[in-house]
Amino acid sequence: MTDTRDTGFIPRDRAWHPAPYHPPYKTSVKRSPQAALLSMPSTLGEETGPVFGHAMLGELDNDLIHNFAQPGESAIGPRIVVYGRVLDETGRAVPNTLVEFWQANAGGRYRHKKEGYLAPLDPNFGGCGRTVTGEDGSYEFRTVQPGPYPWPNGMNDWRPAHIHFSIFGSGFAQRLITQMYFEGDPLIPLCPIVGTLKDPRAVEALTAPLDMNRTIPMDARAYKFDIVLRGRRQTFFENRMEGM
Amino acid sequence: MVQPLNYLRESPSQTAGPYVHIGCTPNFSGIEIYGGDLGTTMKTGPVKGQEITIRGKVYDGMGVAMRDALVEVWQADGAGLFPSPAEKRGRADPNFTGWGRSPGDMNTGEFTFKTVKPGQVPFVDGRMQAPHVSFWIVARGINIGLQTRMYFADEADANAVDPVLMRIEHQSRVPTLLAQPESDGTYRFDIHLQGPQETVFFDI
Hints:
The structure holds 2 protein chains of 2 kinds.
Chain A: E1 38-39, H1 44-47, E2 79-88, E3 98-102, E4 128-132, E5 138-144, E6 149-151, E7 157-159, E8 162-167, E9 176-182, H2 200-205, E10 207-208, E11 221-224, E12 227-229, H3 236-243
Parallel strand pairs in A: 2-11, 2-12, 9-10
Antiparallel strand pairs in A: 2-5, 3-4, 3-8, 6-7, 8-9
Chain B: H1 20-24, E1 51-56, E2 58-59, E3 70-74, E4 99-102, E5 111-116, E6 132-138, E7 146-152, H2 156-160, E8 178-181, E9 186-188, E10 191-192, E11 202-203
Parallel strand pairs in B: 1-9, 2-10, 7-8
Antiparallel strand pairs in B: 1-5, 3-4, 3-6, 6-7, 8-9
């Protein structure tokens, strides 16, 4: 079999990603496939994917402080800006791609009917937002820093503060969900979900640093979170055309 | 020493967690925002081809239907064309999005996609693949999104020569990828994460 095209995705490094079966994260035990995955090259159906334009976005979609708040109100909690770029493994920007994010409120409580934590809901905080990357792959949103919270796994497991991210890319095989952690959070090394990552550099790759240069004085601190999606194989000719 | 290759590493996956619906289908979760959830409608007008409904459940290793999964599909239109700027073989049906997202029924976990039966799309070497729909499944306890494909049990001739199905070492597992037609234009496709019926998942 010869693949005559030059657009296939670089294979995923499964040892870098979390192992599906990770007993310290108890729910993974019965939700992890046990047979080997079937390897195959990406085809047009994995190299294409849905396209979402900037036009579908509402003005407050990337402002979690206000997008669920009553008029004149705002969410309670430490105000932050989260910003970064979506790139691929070859370092190219991933433009015009949908990025969705969701999180607990500043007290560590999600707005969800199955959520049982005793911390209160914030009537002005929904906990979700979305944006579409710019031509240079950049994105940003405003929110409040989520609180850590206890969860039923071990008898005393706490999630570090985190924001969930869903990213599309240009091909369905790039589809990714991950979580962003905050620099300096002492719960990071204790968490069984973070512990699904074997390589300390993988944890670092999901830990956002404080960026005082992007802070908005007297308003919000800033955290930088770059996201890398799978890259495509490139030919010499493709590179030349790009450079010319 | 040699020069570094300087590739970036893909951001590692983390589980979508129990509240994935807040982020991906907030209106389903009771958070009314955006004017509606994405991916609920794959047909935006009259479409070409055979209209079908795909229904199924995702079962965990204890055989329990999961109610906290999020399932997405991506597929070609009735003529085998993708609604994508990267589609160079022709123009896809303008009333078909190709992409669907289902949070599953709140009580039963059953996912539903009202779509069209896809046409055939070539494999990387030019051979035709049997009609199929790409699936992506995330949930609490799933540490990296699961990729699989749904084929159609009533396409036996095409399935028999499908380049991907033929790669499956244990051919007894092929039926885990076959959706079964029901009487009313519905195809049933259940996904099993573990056990004797474990679905074939892909590393694409």
